[in-house]
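During the practical work, I selected for study one protein's amino acid sequence and its backbone structure tokens, as given directly below:
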Amino acid sequence: MKRMSAAAFGLATLMLAGQAMAYVTVRYYNKDSKAHVAEAVCSGSKKEVKFGSSRTASVTIQGSGPCTVTLGNTVELKGGENIEIKDGKITIK
């Protein structure tokens, strides 16, 4: 009985750890001279995503993909995409 409980606990721990480490990472180029904050929804949870001004960088959004990101328009991100921000709108390149 104890072995079964330990096995069930171990399985539950692995499942939770897998969810905690879920994320979507994208590379972005912000052509605008101002920083932007977008709303992302991943796994039903809302997050804020910050894109620095006039730069190329990567951003990681916690949660499993696909994620919808809204900044002037809405795009769906699965991870690994290159995105561009221009005139306050986000596009996948």
User: Anything to note?
Assistant: DSSP finds one helix and eight strands in the chain. The mean pLDDT is 86. The first helix runs from residue 2 to 20.
